[in-house]
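HUMAN: I'm a chemist; might I ask for a sequence paired with its structure tokens?

ASSISTANT:
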Amino acid sequence: VAGMLFETVGWFNVDIIPMTLLRIVGLMVLLLGTYIAVVLATQRKTLASRTQNNQTSSRLVLRLWAFGAGVLCTVQSTFNGQLGNLIDSPTVSALWAFVIGLIVLVFLKPNTWQVLVRGIKMPQSWSAGVAGGTFVTLMSLLIPKLGPGLTVSISTLGVMVGAMLVQQFGLFKSSRQNVSMTQVIGILIMLSGIILIKMF
């Protein structure tokens, strides 16, 4: 949603792409697919817990926070892409994103040296760092070439497919759960929405 908005209005100096009826339909199809893959697929599992402990308002707040995080991801990726383009190095652009991010995080949450040392010894820290650095670098490289709308849409689809693979095979010590047909249908609908947005 944020990527298409930036492209339509031309925010953050991105190339303007006029909003067409087909792009709107594609966005609606993409949102429908996301709803099916995420909400409907997990509705049965969470129905019992919701009945026992009604936390509808807190769930809504958390979902709004998640939506806001997605918007910030698009903003960050757009700025990273522009910086990488200006200095002709998506890797350095990603590096600066992490350096500034580190400074912000130090002030956002108090950290102790004991926790920092304990964290750096964990293999998850190194794995997350490598994956995060690679992700930010790739987004910096792709945003100027594909635009924020298409880049973020495809990366969101990748996130969903990756999550399904982790779930299906219990990767990285996660709990193993079979992927449902509802999730697969939702992913295919998301893909259709992306094709409608950008291919026609």
In short: The mean pLDDT is 84.
